[in-house]
Amino acid sequence: MAPKKTKEESEKITVTPNDLEWTDHVLTLLSDDEKIAGNPTTDGLRRVFEIALNCTVIESTSKVVQSPDQNNEKRATVVHTIGYVLNTDMSTTGHLNTRVVSGAADVYWGNCDKIYRNHPVAVAETRAEGRALRRGLKLRKVVAAEEIAKEIDDDIHGGNINKINNNQINFIDVISKRLDIDVSKLLEEMTIDSSKIYAIEHDKAVEIVQKLTAYQQDMTTIPDGIKSYNPSWK
Questions:
Q1: 156-174 burial, b for 16+ CB within 10 Å, e for fewer?
Q2: Residue 216 Cα to chain centre, angstroms
Q3: Is the pLDDT of residue 98 over 70?
Q4: Strand pairing partners for 62?
Q5: How many angstroms separate the CA atoms of 173 and 117, rounded?
Q6: The listed CATH number (3.60.21, 3.30.2010, 3.30.160, 3.30.1760) that belongs to domain 16-147
Q7: What are phi and psi of 41, to 5 degrees?
Q8: Considering the entire predicted model, what is its pTM?
Q9: Given a cut of 80, is residue 19 above it in pLDDT?
């Protein structure tokens, strides 16, 4: 039978990332205001990262790999990288053994709370950092509070449900390119304002689609004045 540990020896026992109790241990380091509905905030994870791992962070950077625009549904993709060294490595070997973890996140109107939908890069950066922190801390079955969206808007235009949608825009672009039609000239012919494509009414968009469909069925009816596709119409 193994000898019973003394009180002093028991107090020296620490939980390691390989222990089943590790995640609970890390979460106990967070204050109540660093949790939302039980999920740790990125700010909280950032604060306890060095404490839990007994390390020193030497790098914490974000890289935007996709910027939001109309063609990608205003989607932003960010990769966050954290570089750190364990303090125990320095004390025992005297050498820096840099460890690196990364986390990625992409955010658009369909996975972001509607109150933040106009700031997809900022949200993606926070989510990416939260994922990097979770990965470095080796947390199990835990997501950062910022990764959870509760009130998602169901339309990219945020209430403009009577406006032209992406499917219509993509159809117009594909068919116009195939038929070698200048969309701006087509809209001018149809007396539709082409200066603000995403402000076009849905009914007008339907008319454009119908017009292009008719031209596709009989290309001989395409007026010469609207020919020559221009990719910058959007």
A1: beeeeeebbbeebbebbbe
A2: 38
A3: yes
A4: 80
A5: 26
A6: 3.30.160
A7: -80, 160
A8: 0.62
A9: yes
Q: Where are the domains of the chain?
A: 16-147, 166-233
Average pLDDT, the chain: 86
Q: Which percentage of the chain shows pLDDT scores above 70?
A: 87
* Amino acid letter for position 106: D
User: Which residue is listed with tokens 């030497």?
Assistant: 58
Residues 134, 137, 141, 143, Cα dihedral to 10°:
-20
What pLDDT band is residue 92 in, cutting at 50, 70 and 90?
low
Which residue reads 């469909």 in tokens? Answer: 213
Q: Are 132 and 81 in contact (CB under 8 A)?
A: yes
Within a 10 A sphere around the Cβ of 61, how many other Cβ atoms?
A: 11
Q: Report the range out of 117-121, 125-129, 150-154, 190-194 with the highest average pLDDT.
A: 125-129
Would the CA dihedral through 8, 11, 13, 14 be positive or negative?
negative
